[in-house]
Structures are given as structure tokens and as C-alpha cells.
Amino acid sequence: MQNVRYVKVGSKEEAASVVLDRVRKELDDGLNVLGLATGSTMIPIYKSWSDSDLDFSGVTSFNLDEYAGLGKDNPNSYAWFMNHHLFSHKPFKETYIPDGTAEDLTAECEEYEALLRDAEIDLQFLGVGENGHIAFNEPGTPFSSTTHVTQLTDSTLGVNSQYFEDESAIPKTALTMGIASILSAKKILLLAFGEKKRFALEQLVKGERTTEFPITALLDHPDVTIITDLDGITG
Ligand code: GLP
Q1: N or C: which end of the chain has fewer CB within 10 A?
Q2: Which of 138, 148, 160, 229 is labelled catalytic?
Q3: What is the C-alpha to C-alpha distance for residues 87 and 30, in angstroms, rounded to an integer?
Q4: What pLDDT score does 161 carry?
Q5: Is the CB of 67 within 6 Å of ligand 1?
Q6: Which residues of the chain have pLDDT under 50?
Q7: Nearest Cα to 174, choosing from 205, 220, 141?
């Protein structure tokens, strides 16, 4: 696939260094709006940015998703994650994350989508779920979806339960940018480390678009880079 470029790295550290160089170049080229992701995959990336001389003070960021009901003081919220791993170390011009504590979640999603449309993301970071989800767009989500409220699947709840002390505290509902919202970014960079992500990446490599595997929506985007430590994922 011409539009999807695969970069094989030897380790997460090497990935962080490749990403740092890429972000430095994008900043030099005038990047204004960055789409950010959460999840363990992003932790070494944000650490390397935090330890670097990169200047994000002119950059506006938009995060992909948030759990419903969790506020920024809850260590399981993505707002807390972003503050802890990046924003408390690097000042940004403005940062946006869907508000999981909004009274009207649907209205919050509509407002978020309107902000996104005005801002136009220059570079969107993505991780991928073991079931091929991107952000919290679970299998079956239409590729035309915009920011919306979603119900998490058992697969995602199972994987994410490791972060919650009490399993019953995991929100089953989340707010997420839709697939069309993500595809409207000018460039996309997806990171996937470890064998647990092989199945999801293989769906992309197959080159067939299917809502069963949301990651395959990236085949419709003109500029995608996949950075992975997995052997044999070459597209
Ligand atoms: C969550 C997030 C996704 C992320 C995924 C992978 O489901 N909503 O945006 O890509 O986790 O997480 P990890 O990087 O921990 O494997």
C-alpha cells in the first residue's frame, strides 16, 4: 500500500527517538495542531518529549478519547494521564480532551467535533487495540463516524482492566473521536509494539477495508506511518 509506510524499529527506545526526530521536523515545518493518544504505548514517547528541548508552547493539542464519568483528578482518566506524562512537563498553547464528566455527553461530543473541524490536526498519533480499535472506535463503528459516545467491548474492557485496582470501576462508556474525525488529520502516525498487536497490524497489511477492524480505515488516508517493533510487518 503506497499510502501506508512501515518503519521497523528494534525497540521502544528506538521508536521514541524516530518519533522525536519526526516531531522536531514537523515543528520546524510549522506544525500547529497535534492529535494525541493515550495508552502504555505512548509513555516512552511522551517521556522523550518531556526530556527534550522541543517547544510545544505554540501548539494546540486534541486527545482522541476519554472515559465517561472520569474527571481530570481521577488517575484512570486520560486527562490525568496526559497531565502526568506530558502536559505537566511541557507547556502547550492549548490542550483539549473530551470532558468525561460533562452532563450531556452527546452535546460534549458535538462541541468537540466542531472544535476539531475548525482546528484541522496536522499530525495525529494513534495506538491500536488488540481487536484493531483506534481511539475507542470499536469493531463495527462506521468509517463515517464523528466524535461520539461509545460502549466499550469486552475485549477492550479486559485489556484495560489491568489499569484499574477495582475491575468494577472501569467505565463501560467512553467519548471518542470518530473514524472520520481521525481520517481528517493531514498526517497519521500509529505506534504498535509487541506480539499482542500483531493480529491488528496484520488486518491493515491485508489491505482490505472492513469495519470489523477499525484500523483498516487508515487505508483510506493518504499519509500514514506505522512504527512497529514487529518483524514481518511490511505491507
Ligand atoms: C485504549 C485507547 C487507545 C489505545 C489503546 C492501546 O483503548 N483508547 O487509544 O490505542 O488503548 O493501548 P496500549 O498502548 O496500552 O496498548
Answers
A1: N
A2: 138
A3: 20
A4: 85
A5: no
A6: 1
A7: 141
Q: What is the pTM of this model?
A: 0.96
For residue 137, what is its C-alpha cell? 472506535
| Cβ 136 vs Cβ 177: under 8 Å | no
Which residue has cell 515543528?
Answer: 27
Cβ–ligand 1 contact at 135 (below 6 Å): yes
* Closest-CA residue to 173 (of 192, 151, 199): 151
Q: 226: how many CB neighbours lie within 10 A of its CB?
A: 25
Rounded-to-10 torsion of CA 167, 173, 175, 180: 110
What one-letter code names the amino acid at 100?
G
Nearest CA to ligand 1 atom 1: 39
DSSP 3-state of 176: strand
Each residue's pLDDT tens digit, 109-147? 999 999 999 999 999 999 999 999 999 999 999 999 999
Closest residue to atom 3 of ligand 1, CA basis: 135
Confidence (pLDDT) at 212:
98
- The predicted pLDDT at position 235 comes to 64
φ, ψ dihedrals at 36, nearest 5°: -115, 155
Q: Choose among 174, 220, 231: nearest CA to 197.
A: 231
For 104, other C-beta atoms within 10 Å of its C-beta total 9
The predicted pLDDT at position 36 comes to: 98
Nearest to 58, CA basis, from 19, 29, 16, 99? 29
